[in-house]
Specification:
The protein is α/β, with parallel strands linked by helices. The chain is built from twelve helices and 20 strands. A six-stranded parallel sheet has the order 2-1-3-4-5-6, sandwiched between helices. The structure holds iron/sulfur cluster (SF4).
């Protein structure tokens, strides 16, 4: 039986696509082995969102070649689309597949083929549905791809093309397949999922209403949504839904209106703040994970203080902090007054401390409370861990296997970023 290994860099969307592409190989008789073990085929799903991510994709290629010198390597993903030549120094590289062709990996491998397949991203219109099953308790379901926004620091539109999606009907079919595997939680995934419906004349609000009616899936999480696309009807729907979790991941990027203008973002700090406050009013126990970029060109100490102060006063729960790095071909590279890397580090550290404080404050609000937990994994000491609806991590001791079960738990001690609990 031929062996296939794989590794994914980057986002949840890449994760769902790797899973679907590898699934075609296993359906054709391949056995999956861990990345790092010898394999006949290795798939590397690359990322280009930062210079470091692209470097890691190239290093993973070299590592795969060392592990399986006789094997063949297939590079897919965003760096394969934006910079395919970068992978050709490794002789084991058999295919480099850009956005249009990555789902043809098995077909092309088994036919006469060139090495690079990377057409002009403007010509990419196809939408390949994808979902992951490897975690057995939750699945990343791709509902949308690409982006039409002009953010000046971002390479994603160049890697994934224009915003597009498949129909609500076809997504319901995929969700039913996931439910039939006994998986209880789906994370709706894409590039700009609030923009869902562009190519089918539907809306994200329509989609979540239909998914809510589907039997077999207990929980949905919205992986990330732009503040200007988190509408009042979506907020009110999540507030009353049993299945859509009170968990929001929202990009802010900067708390300075001047910097947001330089980034060409589609909201200002007032719109953002009002959206957080409105959501918090309708869903008081909601978890807010916020994306912030530090050190964007032109960001002064005063701009950074505005970001820090805004985040300090808002009821947010956690920060995802990204140090700015120039990305070839993006308008931001031409913006003057680059921020020295040592200043970026200082600002990053300050926000990380704020994030820890906010995270602990958020957790402590729920001590002693009763929450439903979906248990996902077990450690060697019979401790099972999982997450509440509002994304609190919980671990309980159990002698019976409670993996993939949703159980009422009384949250007790909060220690090292995790709640202990008592099963009721
Ligand atoms: S919304 Fe902006 S940052 Fe996000 S993928 Fe689109 S262009 Fe990139």
């Amino acid at each position: 039986m031929p062996k296939i290994s794989y590794t994914t860099l980057g986002c949840k969307l890449n994760f769902s696509e790797t899973a679907s592409i590898v699934r075609e190989f296993t359906e054709q008789g391949y056995k999956t082995v861990k990345f790092g073990e010898k394999a006949d085929i290795t798939i590397i799903n690359s990322c280009t969102v930062t210079a470091q991510a692209e470097r890691k994709s190239v290093n993973a290629t070299k590592k795969a070649a060392k592990i399986s010198p006789e094997g063949k390597i297939i590079i897919i993903g965003c760096a394969a689309q934006t910079n395919p030549e970068r992978f050709l120094n490794t002789e084991q590289v058999e295919l480099v597949l850009g956005t249009h062709d990555k789902f043809r990996a098995y077909e092309l491998l088994n036919s006469n083929h060139d090495i690079i397949y990377s057409c002009d991203i403007q010509d990419v219109n196809n939408f390949d549905i994808a979902y992951s099953t490897t975690e057995r308790t939750r699945s990343f379901l791709k509902i949308q791809d690409g982006c039409d926004y002009p953010c000046t620091y971002c390479t994603i539109p160049k890697a994934r093309g224009k915003s597009r999606n498949s129909s609500i009907k076809s997504i319901l079919t995929e969700a039913e397949k996931i439910a039939s595997l006994g998986i209880k939680e789906i994370i709706l995934t894409g590039v700009n999922i609030g923009d869902f419906g562009k190519s089918t004349n539907e809306t994200f609000y329509d989609l979540i209403k239909e998914l809510d009616k589907l039997d077999g899936i207990n929980r949905y999480r919205i992986s990330s949504i732009e503040p200007n696309l988190l509408t009042t009807n979506i907020i009110k729907f999540v507030a009353k839904s049993e299945k859509f979790m009170p968990h929001f991941h929202i990009p802010l990027q900067s708390g300075s209106d001047d910097v947001l203008k330089l980034m060409k973002r589609r909201y200002n700090t007032k719109i953002f703040a009002d959206k957080i406050i409105e959501t918090n009013k309708h869903i008081p126990n909601a978890f807010f994970g916020i994306d912030v970029i530090v050190g964007f060109p032109g960001e002064t100490e005063e701009h950074f203080e505005q970001t820090f102060n805004l985040l300090s006063i808002l009821p947010i729960s956690y920060l995802h902090i990204f140090p700015y790095s120039d990305r070839k071909g993006t308008p931001a590279t031409a913006i003057k007054n680059k921020v020295p890397s040592e200043w970026i580090k200082v600002r990053e550290q300050k926000l990380a401390e704020l994030s820890n404080k906010k995270h602990e404050l958020f957790y402590k609000k729920f001590a002693g409370k009763l929450h439903k937990v979906l248990f996902e994994s077990k450690d060697e000491n019979n401790f099972f861990s999982g997450f509440t609806d509002n994304y609190l991590k919980v671990a309980v001791e159990s002698n019976i296997d409670i993996k993939n079960q949703i159980i009422n738990v009384q949250l007790t001690n909060f220690k090292n970023g995790i709640f202990e609990g008592i099963i009721l």
